[in-house]
Structure to design on (333 residues):
């Protein structure tokens, strides 16, 4: 079994967007309370993009995270496409790991858990600038209460846990909607989902984890961006989740959200350890892998189905524009 070294991949939510400037101080950015108004009931979701090559068609569903927690996606259009597909492509991803077997992998869990924490027992107040730590404290109290373990985390990990708690409280969730539907429909069709992955092999995961445990990360900007998301953008994330559920592409295009995950992933990819493992810009690597796989599938299949993050589909320099520049016909929903 493949052991994924999530400690090395950090928070690789592979999507693309612009960044925004961080607020100056805790006094300037009070925690804003927003009434949780999220879509419920049966909703259609967005339409599908089409990429054509001769008589062959690649159908693409734009995915989004988070989504409303309590709505039911009316997925019949996606299921109908997969029902006649020759191939289903998996979501693009970066995989950092090693084929070492399940039981050997279990022995790495303590080291992987330790990797979440700051080296040498440092706490957040020791590694964060005072103004940023002051912004963190009211959010920590609100979302973690008296849980002191969070203070031991590296900033990237602490910020990611904060973000996940905030979106759950806002009536949103990060998974369990699109993936299960696609997997079940592919199984009914008798297809195995084709992985679209950039694989980074780790020959000696134990040694690599030890090295990661000693590696300082420049993840202060990651931490600040995540605090921005929680302080300022939860309402926008909720609006985007609602827009996806009802299929409002124009609203999604009008409300881009800065991608703090990319900043967090960069904190790792810029380290000497990442360079030794061969990890460059993971977002570029994964995008290129998807475009290459899409072209192969369009050459050989009458019908292919794929998913891509909505931010990729709407990006002016994203994978669809790469395909358009190569001569493929693109049709938006």
């Amino acid at each position: 079994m493949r052991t994924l070294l999530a400690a090395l991949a950090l928070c690789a939510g592979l999507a693309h967007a612009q960044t925004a400037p961080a607020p100056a101080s805790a006094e300037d950015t009070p925690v804003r309370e927003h009434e949780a108004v999220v879509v419920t009931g049966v909703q259609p979701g967005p339409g599908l993009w089409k990429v054509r090559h001769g008589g062959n068609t690649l159908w693409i569903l734009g995915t989004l995270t988070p989504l409303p927690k309590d709505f039911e996606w009316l997925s019949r259009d996606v299921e109908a496409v997969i029902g006649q597909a020759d191939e289903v492509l998996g979501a693009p991803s970066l995989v950092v790991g090693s084929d070492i077997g399940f039981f050997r992998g279990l022995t790495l869990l303590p080291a992987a858990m330790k990797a979440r924490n700051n080296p040498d027992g440092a706490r957040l107040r020791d590694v964060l600038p005072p103004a940023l730590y002051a912004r963190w404290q009211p959010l920590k109290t609100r979302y973690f209460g008296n849980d002191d373990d969070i203070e031991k985390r590296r900033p990237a990990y602490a910020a990611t846990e904060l973000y996940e708690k905030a979106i759950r409280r806002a009536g949103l969730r990060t998974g369990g909607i699109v993936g299960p539907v696609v997997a079940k429909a592919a199984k009914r069709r008798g297809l195995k989902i084709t992985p679209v992955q950039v694989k980074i092999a780790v020959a000696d995961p134990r040694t690599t984890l030890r090295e990661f445990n000693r590696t300082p990360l420049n993840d202060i900007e990651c931490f600040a961006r995540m605090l921005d998301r929680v302080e300022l953008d939860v309402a926008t994330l909720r609006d985007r989740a609602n827009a996806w559920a009802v299929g409002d592409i124009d609203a999604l295009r009008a409300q881009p959200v800065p991608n703090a995950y990319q900043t967090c992933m960069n904190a790792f990819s810029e380290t000497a350890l990442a360079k030794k493992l061969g990890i460059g810009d993971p977002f570029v690597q994964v995008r290129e892998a998807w475009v290459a796989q899409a072209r192969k599938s369009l050459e050989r299949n009458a019908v292919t189905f794929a998913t891509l993050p909505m931010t990729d589909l709407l990006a002016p320099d994203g994978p669809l524009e790469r395909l358009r520049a190569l001569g493929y016909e693109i049709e938006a929903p």
About this structure: The radius of gyration is 21 Å. The chain has one domain: 2-331. DSSP finds 16 helices and twelve strands in the chain.
